[in-house]
Structures are given as C-alpha cells and as structure tokens.
C-alpha cells in the first residue's frame, strides 16, 4: 500500500476552463479519503489526474515519493472503479477480473486462484462464467470491485461507484466497502456527491467547490467545526439552518438579535464576535440542535414560530417553520407533541451554535 | 357505423393496401432470382419456348452446370473472386475500423475532423466520374493494371469511406470511453485497447460492413472489367462474358453461371444475418 502527495495541483483545460485550483493533499498509507462536493466542483477531475487519465497542468503528484505526473496509467499501480463499472461486455466475470493479470503475463493457474479467492470474498463464485449483461446492478458493482482487488494495487480509486444503485443496495454496498477497506487495509480515494457516503466511509473528507478545496478533515471535525458556510451547509442532512443575526453588546453580555428574538451568547462565542458589535453575522444551527424549548424561555436561547410542516420519520420528526423569512428545520423526537399550526418554541443548543462572517462566509469560531 | 368501427375499417383498408404494395415489391425483387432458378434446370430449347414453365418439355436437366463451369473456367475464376473479395473485405474492415477509432477519439484534433469530412464528401462522387482518370493513371503512368493486388487496393480505397462512416457511428454511440480508460488502467496500451476491447465490441458493425462490401466486391463488374485484362485473373462476373456470343447466347449456361456466382454470397449473408440485424438496431434501445 502507499502514500500519496498532491502538491499545488492545477487543472486548466485547453479552452481556458480552470477546473482545479491549487489542490494540496497528503494521503497516508491505508487512509480512506473522500472527495465530496457538488457537480462540477473538480472532484472527479482530480481523481482522474491521480489515475493518469487527465494531464496535470501544474503541480506535482507523487506516489511513495516518486513523481507520477508523466507516468502512464498502467504503470502507476492503481486500480479504479468507475461510476458505470466499465466492465468489458464481451468477457465473462472471470475474464474481467483476471484481465489485468493476464496483461501482466501472470501464469494462468495463479490468475485463476487469485480470481477465485477474490470471488469468494465478494460472493461472486457462482457468477464467474456469466457475462456482465446477465448480472444485476449490485453484482456488476461487486465485479468492478473484484477487478480492482485482484490486482492488489497500491491505491484504489473509486468514482461514484454507488450512484447507479437503488437506495437499499447503496446502503448495503456502502457497508461492504467499509468492511473491505478494513479487511484489505488499502489506501482508497473515493469520489462522491453524497455527503452521507462521505460521512460514513471516510477517514478524512476533502470538501470541494468550484475547483477549490474548502476544508480537509475527519467527518466529525467537518460536522462540528466547519470552516465556512459552504462546508457547514454541505455536510449534514437535513442541512444546517442559517439565519442573519445582528450582534448587540449590552454591558458585559453579548446578544444575537434574530427576527424579534434575543439570544444570549456564551463567553467563548461572545469573544469570537467581539469586533462585530452592531454588525450582521450568519448564525448556523443544525436541525438536531434546535430542541423543544417549552419552559426554557428564561435561558435566553429560544426562538418561536408556528410549525408549517411536520414530517414523521419513525423515531424522529422534522418540523419546518419560517423565521425572519427563511425556512428552518428542527429535528425532534417523534413523541414531541408539536403539530402543524401550533406555535413552536425552539431552544438553541448554544454549545453547538456556529457563527460566520456574512461577507467572507468564513467561520468566526474555527479556522482550518 | 360508430366512430370506432369507422376507424377500425379505415385501419384495415390501409393495412390491406400496404400488404398489396409489399407483395408487388417482393415479386419485383424475387422474380429475376426465380427465373434463374427455374431455367437453370432446362435446356436451351425449353428456355426459349417457355421461360416461365417450371419444368421444360425435355424434362429436368443439370447438364448446364458442368458445361458452364468448364466454359468459364469456374474453379479458377471462383478462386480469383474469393481471393479478391476476401482480401479487400478484410483490408477495408481493418483500415476503416482503426481509422474511425482514431477519428472518434481525437475529435478535437482538426486534422481528424477534416479527414473525416473529406471521406464523407468522397462518398457522393460517382465511380463513373473517376473511371477514366483511374485507368489512365494506374495503367498509363504506373503501369500496374491487370493485377489482383491492384484490384484489391482499388476496392479497398473505394469502400473505406463508407465503412469508416459506419464504424465511426458505432464507436461514437456504442463504445463508452470509460471502457477504454478501464483498459488503460488495467495495463493495456492504446493498440491493445483497440484490439482487445474496442474491436471485439464492433462485431455487429464488422458483420454489416463485411456483407455489404463482400457483396459489392463479389458482384462488381465495372471495376474488374477496367483493371483485369488477362483471362487467368478474371473474376466470376467478368468470366460470364464467355456465354454471350456475337450471334447467339446460351441462356441455360448463363443461368447456371449466375446461380454459381450468387450462391457463395447468399451463404455468407445467411451466416452473418443475425449480426447485421444486431448492427442495425444497436444503440436503438437502452440495454
């Protein structure tokens, strides 16, 4: 297995489109790195540069300290799982999985042994003599994984490998991939636009937007300490609620004025906005940190609004309401007796409150 | 009569007209072949007296075949036709499949798109326009007429544009780029990617091009008649000239020669038919 180093990587296409800006990342051995971001953010382009399928315009890419910029894809010792699986339709599952080894002139017996070993891991033994068109989506996905595993490469690259599966199978395969990473102990770089996949699989997540890396850190860190508005909004489902708030100092206390409500900031948060007196900041609070606030009015951390929609999900319910003209969501236990039309009282968990500069959109609490 | 009944009657009428039209077209197409088939087993007198009768007055005969084979030197001309058709067809498929792969995958390169545009443009130039300069250049200047190799290369040259056009469409719409990328990562060179991944997936198009070109080469009369002058290297269509005398023509022998000329290409068609249908419908529906 291997470590990767991407230094000041840029991708500029012939038509002048700047797809990736100054991408820097050090990937350690056995890490599971996720590139996440909306469509067109440059995550797949970066993965393809690592694979050698796109030229690197500027910067250096190294595997185990060896510069790879101009090395052919076949000589990089990587394996890739494509979004469409890219299985060779005219070959059987066995031939698909053994193709790379055959090209490397590995003896037939060794190829067969290796293919059968991997087929056993992925529960593909009975399908080895079938062609891809005779397989279901999930089976094709497993064959694509198997084709990569058989080679025992230094790095696995996965480009949205679960996006063509239905919701149930996606959850199942997600678990399979996590188990596989644990079992094989490989370095994996995985591209997705699904933040749930990113949060559940990655040891570290690279959040990208418009070709620029927004933040690189562990899922927990990104969730709890997003460095800007984009990361805060992208990570987490349902997404974080954002409200404009005016900072007001009253004596030794600092308050945020949101609509008609005044919220008293704890000391550490007050310190972060000490230069913003009278200015507007963006307050961010996740739906699960808006609690049923009835009886907590005295704590000066409460907002009130009529419930517009209630969605019951089983153990929990989403309550939608408008505050200051913006749609907000609260995630509460399903036994909270707030129904549509009732006046909701929501207490903000002040320890979890996020604050952002309205102009720069950067976090006022955490710097990356 | 209700509105629905009227519509149903109208549909039936249209259907009947279509069937009649199809039958007429079918008869027009099949009639020459049937004529050959029923007259080949008659002698000259029976053919002349009643060409439409199934069996002649003198009965069923197969004597036309050995006579026709001997007169046209059948085994030699069959060998020539087979060699020229096979070589030109294989060459056309190889050259055009490789050319279209390069053109499709280097679409941004202007030279490729210009070359492709030129190939398409060349398809609209009738052969008759090029006939005289072709013979004068290859015969007069290079002096390489009257050779099977020259005919093979000329057949290939004239058919490569159409074949490239067909392969271009097949690669463009049926071969995902991701397959080639997967092959590159698996360890293939560009050359291996083409031969191990792309070409096997072009099987329906290969069959379509093979049958279209093989038929054209096998049946072609005009080009071989311009290129080949030596009897030893005649193809079947040229060799059938032997039956057309100045004062008389033995129709029975002509029919036998025509049937012998037709059979190999019919057999090839029957073999490749399923691929041709697959080639025509490939990409029409989501797989």
Question: Care to give the gist of this entry?
Answer:
The complex is a heterodimer of chains A (368) and B (287). By secondary structure, chain A is α+β, with helices and mostly antiparallel strands.
Explain what this protein looks like in three dimensions:
Chain A has 368 residues and is α+β, with helices and mostly antiparallel strands. Chain A folds into two domains: 4-234, 3-Layer(aba) Sandwich (Rossmann fold); 241-357, Beta Barrel (OB fold (Dihydrolipoamide Acetyltransferase, E2P)), CATH 2.40.50. Chain A has helices spanning 43-51, 93-103, 108-121, 137-150, 167-184, 195-201, 219-224, 229-234, 267-272; strands at 4-12, 18-27, 32-36, 58-63, 66-67, 78-81, 155-159, 187-192, 204-209, 212-217, 241-250, 253-258, 261-264, 280-285, 290-292, 302-306, 309-312, 316-323, 326-333, 343-348, 354-357. Chain A has a six-stranded mixed sheet with strand order 6-7-8-3-9-10, sandwiched between helices. In chain A, strands 13-12-11-14-21 form a five-stranded antiparallel sheet. Chain A has a four-stranded antiparallel sheet with strand order 2-1-4-5, with helices on one face. The radius of gyration of chain A is 25 Å and the shape is elongated. With 287 residues, chain B is mainly alpha-helical. Chain B has two domains: 3-39; 71-281, MetI-like (MetI-like fold). The A-B interface holds A 14, 51-53, 72-74, 78-80, 82-84, 86, 88-90, 99-100, 103-104, 133, 147, 151 and B 108, 176, 178-179, 181-189, 192, 197, 200-201, 203, 287.
């Amino acid at each position: 297995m291997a470590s990767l180093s991407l230094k000041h990587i840029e991708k500029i296409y012939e038509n002048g489109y700047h797809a990736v800006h100054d991408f820097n990342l050090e990937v350690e051995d056995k890490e599971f790195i996720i590139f996440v971001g909306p469509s067109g953010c440059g995550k797949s382009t970066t993965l393809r540069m690592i694979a050698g399928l796109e030229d690197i315009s500027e910067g250096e890419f190294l595997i185990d300290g060896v510069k790879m910029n101009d090395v052919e894809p076949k000589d990089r010792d990587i394996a890739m799982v494509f979004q469409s699986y890219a299985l060779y339709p005219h070959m059987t599952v066995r031939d698909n999985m053994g193709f790379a080894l055959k090209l490397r002139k590995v003896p037939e017996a060794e190829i067969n042994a290796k293919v059968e070993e991997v087929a056993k891991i992925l529960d593909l033994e009975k399908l080895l003599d079938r062609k891809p068109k005779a397989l279901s989506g999930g089976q094709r996905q497993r064959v694509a994984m198997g084709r990569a595993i058989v080679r025992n490469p230094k790095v696995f690259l996965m480009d949205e490998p679960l996006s063509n599966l239905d919701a149930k199978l996606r959850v199942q395969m997600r678990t399979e991939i996590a188990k596989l990473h644990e079992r094989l102990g490989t370095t994996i770089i995985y591209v997705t636009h699904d933040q749930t996949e990113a949060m559940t699989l990655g040891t570290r997540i690279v959040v990208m937007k418009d070709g620029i890396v927004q933040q690189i850190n562990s899922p927990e860190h990104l969730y709890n300490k997003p460095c800007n508005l984009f990361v805060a909004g992208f990570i987490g489902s349902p997404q974080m609620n954002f409200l404009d708030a005016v900072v007001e100092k009253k004596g030794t206390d600092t308050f945020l004025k949101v609509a008609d409500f005044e919220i008293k900031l704890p000391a550490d948060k007050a310190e972060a906005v000490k230069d913003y007196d009278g200015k507007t900041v963006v307050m961010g609070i996740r739906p699960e940190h808006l609690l049923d606030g009835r009886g907590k009015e005295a704590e000066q951390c409460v907002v009130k609004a009529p419930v517009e929609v209630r969605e019951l999900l089983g153990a929990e319910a989403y309550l939608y309401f408008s505050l200051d003209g913006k749609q907000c969501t609260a995630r509460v236990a399903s036994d909270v007796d707030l129904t549509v039309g009732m006046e909701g009282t929501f207490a903000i968990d002040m320890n979890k409150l996020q604050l952002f500069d309205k102009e720069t959109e950067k976090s006022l609490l955490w710097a990356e | 009569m209700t509105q629905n009944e009227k519509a149903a009657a109208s549909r039936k009428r249209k259907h009947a007209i279509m069937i009649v039209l199809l039958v007429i077209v079918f008869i027009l197409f099949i009639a020459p072949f049937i004529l050959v088939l029923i007259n080949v087993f008659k002698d000259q007198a029976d053919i002349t007296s009643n060409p439409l009768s199934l069996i002649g007055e003198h009965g069923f005969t197969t004597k036309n075949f050995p006579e026709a084979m001997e007169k046209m030197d059948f085994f030699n001309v069959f060998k020539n036709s087979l060699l020229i058709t096979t070589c030109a067809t294989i060459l056309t498929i190889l050259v055009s499949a490789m050319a279209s792969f390069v053109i499709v995958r280097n679409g941004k390169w202007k030279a490729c798109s210009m070359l492709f545009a030129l190939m398409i443009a060349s398809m609209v130039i009738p052969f008759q326009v090029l006939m005289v300069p072709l013979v004068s250049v290859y015969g007069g200047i290079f002096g390489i007429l009257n050779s099977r190799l020259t005919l093979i290369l000329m057949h290939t040259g004239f058919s490569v544009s159409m074949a490239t056009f067909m392969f271009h469409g097949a690669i463009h719409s049926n071969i995902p780029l991701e397959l080639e990328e997967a092959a590159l990562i698996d360890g293939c060179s560009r050359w291996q990617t083409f031969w191990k991944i792309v070409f096997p997936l072009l099987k329906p198009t290969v069959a379509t091009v093979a049958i279209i070109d093989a038929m054209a080469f096998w049946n072609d009369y005009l080009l071989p008649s311009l290129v080949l002058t030596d009897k030893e290297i005649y193809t079947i269509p040229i060799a059938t000239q032997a039956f057309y005398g100045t004062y008389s023509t033995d129709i029975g022998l002509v029919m036998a020669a025509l049937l012998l000329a037709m059979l190999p290409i019919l057999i090839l068609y029957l073999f490749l038919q399923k691929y041709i249908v697959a080639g025509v419908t490939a990409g029409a529906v989501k797989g």
